[in-house]
Amino acid sequence: MTAVGRRRRESVRMQAAELFEQKIKPLEVARRLRVSPKSAYQWHQLWRDGGAQALASRGPSGSRCRLSPRCLDKPAAYLEQGPAAHGWAEDQVWTAARVATLIGRKFHVSYSVSGATKLMHRLGFSPQVPARRVAERDEQAVTVSKEAAWDEVKEPGRPAGAASASRTRQASPAGRPKDAPGAGAE
Q1: What confidence tens digit (pLDDT) does each residue in 133-180 have?
Q2: Which residue, among 60, 64, 76, 66, has the nearest Cα to 109 in the 3D structure?
Q3: Within 13 Å of residue 2, how many CA atoms lie on the same side as its CB?
Q4: How far apart are CA 128 and CA 55, in angstroms?
Q5: pLDDT tens string 8-49
Q6: CA-CA distance, 93 to 127, in Å (whole number)?
Q7: Are the beta carbons of 177 and 183 closer than 8 angstroms?
Q8: Distance between first and last Cα of the chain
Q9: Which DSSP string do the residues of 125-147 spell out, in sequence order?
Q10: What is the model's pTM?
């Protein structure tokens, strides 16, 4: 959630506290503030137990950054140098796994791949997932091979004239028993 979103959510909770102080019921608070009744009831319970302070924001949720604030400039500088400068010479792509490995090597801090992705976004980078393709790949041969394989597994469709928009087909008058209703009408 962005900082703007957090401020808006806190503002709404503070408005809810003001409405609760005016003895307005949680369902009406939910309607006025355009939030779910569940949220309004939870906020009401918090407000009753601890007042408006209980509805104040406690800061962003989630785990804290494992790198100290003074170290946050260094990963960005390492990323700017490129992967080749840190031992990945096969391509010039930063993946989240590579960033996690780099942080482990340089800072002796363990990051998961998803944690490294979040850190990269925080630093203004985005991970780039390389297409795992061989440099000698022949695109035309791959296309021909795919088409041949598809022709083998594809089932033939119904003939064009045999289709009907109806699930049932009306029986022909010739196939009806002579004593069936409507058998004599043609």
Answers
A1: 666 777 888 888 888 888 777 777 666 665 556 666 665 666 666 776
A2: 66
A3: 3
A4: 40
A5: 777 888 899 999 999 999 999 999 999 999 999 999 999 999
A6: 8
A7: yes
A8: 73
A9: ----PPP---TT--HHHHHHHHH
A10: 0.43
DSSP secondary structure letters along 61-113:
-SPPPSS-GGGTHHHHHHHHH-GGGGT--S-S---HHHHHHHHHHHH-----H
- Which amino acid does the sequence have at 105? R
Which helix (H) or strand (E) is 26 found in, with range?
Answer: helix 26-33
In sequence order, the 6+-apart residues with CB closer than 8 A to the CB of 87 are none
Average pLDDT of the chain is 80
Contacts of 116 (CB under 8 A, 6+ apart): 96, 97, 99, 100, 103, 127
Q: What is the C-alpha to C-alpha distance for residues 96 and 121, in angstroms, rounded to an integer? A: 11
Q: Cα-atom radius of gyration of the chain, to the nearest Å? A: 33
- Report which of 55, 29, 53 is spatially closest to residue 41, judged by C-alpha positions: 29
Hey, what are 107's tokens?
């800072």
Q: How far apart are CA 62 and CA 29, in angstroms?
A: 28
Cβ–Cβ < 8 Å for 71, 107: yes
Query: How many Cβ atoms sit within 10 Å of the Cβ of residue 99?
Result: 25
Q: How many CA atoms lie within 13 A of 110 on its CB side?
A: 0
Instruction: Count how many residues are written for the chain.
Output: 186
Cα 15 from chain centroid?
Answer: 31
